[in-house]
Amino acid sequence: MNFQFLNTDINFEKRGNPSAFTSILITLLAIFFSLIFAAIIIKVSGGKEADPMAPLAALSAMFEGSFGNLEQWRNLDFYNISEVVVKMIPLTICALGVSVAYKMSFWNIGAEGQFVAGALATSLVALHFDSVLGKIPLLLLMMMLSFIFGAIVGLIPAILKVKRGVNEVVVSLMLNYIVILFTEYLAFGPLRDPRGLGFPGTREFSENAFLPVFGISRVHYGIFLMIFLSILLWIIFKYSKWGFELKVLGENPRAGYCSGMNISKNILLAMIISGGISALAGFTEIAGLSHRLQKGLAVGYGYSAIIVAWISRLNPFKILLWSFIFSVIIAGGDQLQITAKLPKAIALVIQGTILLFVLAGDFFVSYKVKVRLRKIELKS
Amino acid sequence: MNIEFILTTTQIIVLASTSLLLATLGAIISEKSGVTNLSIDGTMLMGALTAFVITKISGNPYLGILLAILSCGLISFIHALLTTFFLSNQIVTGLALNFFSIGLANFFGKNYVGEVSEKLPAIFAGLDILVLIAFILAVLTYIIFYNTKIGLNLLAVGEDPRVADNQGVNPFKYRFWAQIIGGMIVGLGGAHLSLAYTPGWVDGMTAGRGWIAIALVIFSFWNPLRAILGTLLFGGVSFLQFHFQTMGTNIPAAFLNMLPYLITIVVMSFFAVNVKVKVASASASAATAAPVSLGRHYVREER
Fold first, then answer.
1. Does the predicted TM-score (pTM) go above 0.80?
2. Pair A281, A94: CB distance under 8 Å
3. What ipTM was reported for this prediction?
4. Which helix (H) or strand (E) holds B210?
5. What is the pLDDT of residues B51-82, one digit of tens each?
6. Binary contact (B218, A170; C-beta < 8 A)
C-alpha cells in the first residue's frame, strides 16, 4: 500500500514475521504515551493558575495509591496493593468471560449486566438460605445459581442472533441497562432491609455466606477461582477440540461451516459459558466483598473487561497480567479522586487511550513503513 | 383529546426524537462507507459536554453547537485514522474510543454536574433550530446518497471498495471523510441533548442513546428516511415514559426507565429479517440491506 503526500512516497510493506520484541516495545510505548496523555488532560483541566507540576504529582499520587509508599512498605503495610488485587479479581473473571465469546467473534458487551445478574443470584441464595445451609453447600449453591443467571442473560443475545439474525452488540448492551435497573429495583424494593433505617440495599448476610479472606486484608478466596478459571480456559483454548472450533469459527466462519462445525450451537454454548463466567465475578464480589446487594455495584468492571480481553489478545495468562495493570489504573483513579479531587473518570480515559495506542501500534508491528523523498527533476 | 394536547404531544415526541435522529444519521453516513462505528454513544456524550460547557462560558448556544461539531469531528478523526489507515479492528476501535470519550466527557464535566445553562431558543412552534436541521439533514442525506455523484461513490465504496477503487474512486478518502462528517452530525445530536431536550449536564447523560441509534440504523435498513420513522417511534416511547411518570401510576420507575431498552430489543427482533447465521456473509447483508463490505478492511494489495 502506498500513499503520496506532497513529494514524499509513503510505503507500507507487510512484515513476514512480526517479532515479539516489537510488540512488547509497542505495548510499553502505548502505556507511556497514555500516561503522558493523562498528564496533559490533567494539566488542561487545572487551568492556568494551577501548579505546573500538578500532572506529575497527580500521576505519582496514582501510583502511590495503587502500590503504597516506601514508608508503608517498610512497615510491611501492603494495604494499597491488596486493594489492587481486590479489584483485579472481578476484572479478570469478567475478562475471561468475554474472551470466550470473542474467541468466536461473537461481540458480547454484556459482561456488566451478566456480572450484576450473578450478584443478584448470589444475594437471592444468601438471603433465603444463609441461616439454613452450611458454609460450603451455601457457597456452592450461590456459585451455581449465579452461573445460571449469567448464562440466561448471555443466552438472550445468542438466541436472538441465531434465530433472528439480530445484532448481538446492541442487544447485549441494552441488557446491561435492563439487568442493572431490575436489580436496583429489587434491592431497593422487595429485597430491601426492613430494619435498614432507609439504607438503600438488602440486609447483610450472615457469616455463612462470606467467602473466606486472607488475614486482615479484603483479598478473598475468589482469587483461587480467578486462577482456576484462567488455567481452565487456557487449556480449553489451547488443547480442546471445542477451543479449536471456537477459533476457526471466529476467524473464518465459512471454513468452519464447510468442515461441518455447527455455528448456531457453538454461539449458544459460548454465550452460556461467557455469561456464566462473568456472573461468577458478581458472585465473588458479593460473597467476598460487599456481603449485601446495594447501590453502586456496577462500577464498570464489565466494560473494562472488554478492553482487557482485547489488549491481551484473548490469552488467559495475558489477561491476568493486563487485569493487574488495569486494576492499578482503576485503584489509582480512585485514590486520585480522594486525594486530588480529580474525577476518577481519568482511569477510563487512560484505559481507552492504552487500547487505542495498542491498536494503532499493531499496524506498525505487522507493517514496515518506508518514507522516501521523491526527487524533483528540474528542467533546465 | 383537544387540539392543544395533540400539539404538545407532537412537540414532545419530535423534541425527544431529534437527538436520536441526528445520531442515527451520523451512524448511517459512517456505516454506508463500510465502516462500523460503535463509538456513537461516547461521541454523542462528548458533543453534549462541549455544547454545554461552551454555552455556559460564552452564553451563546450557537457557539456551543459549533464547537460540539468540532470536538466530535476530532473524536471521529481518531476512529477514521485507525480504521481506514491503520487497519485496526473496527468493533474494538469503536468500543475503545467509546470508553475513551465517555471517560473524557465525565472527566471534564465533573465541575458542571447538575448545572443548567442557556437553553437553545425556540424558533418555530416551540421547536429549536436543531430540530429543523435534523429533519432537513435526513431528507438531504437521502437525496445525496441516491442522486449525487459523491453519494453514489460513497455507496459504491461501502458495497465493494475494490471495484470502486478500480473505477477511480479512492476508498480511503471516502471512508475517512464519511466518518468525520458522520461524527460531526452525531455531535449535533449530543448538543441537542444538553441544550434543548434535557438542558444541563449529568455524568453519562446520553443513557445509551448512542446505542439505540446504532439499533435504529439496522432497523431503518441504512435508509435516512426510514430513520425518521424509527426515531419518531422512540420519541413516542420517551413520551409515554414521561407521561406515566407525571401521571403517577403504580408501575415502579425502574420499569419505566427500562422501556426504551426493552423496546429496542423487541423492535430489533421483530424487524430483523429472518437470516439464520449459517454463514454470515454477503447473502446475509443483502437480505438486511447492510453495506456488503461493512466491517471489512480494504488493503490495496491484499485479497
1. yes
2. yes
3. 0.84
4. helix B209-219
5. 888 888 888 888 889 999 999 999 999 999 88
6. yes
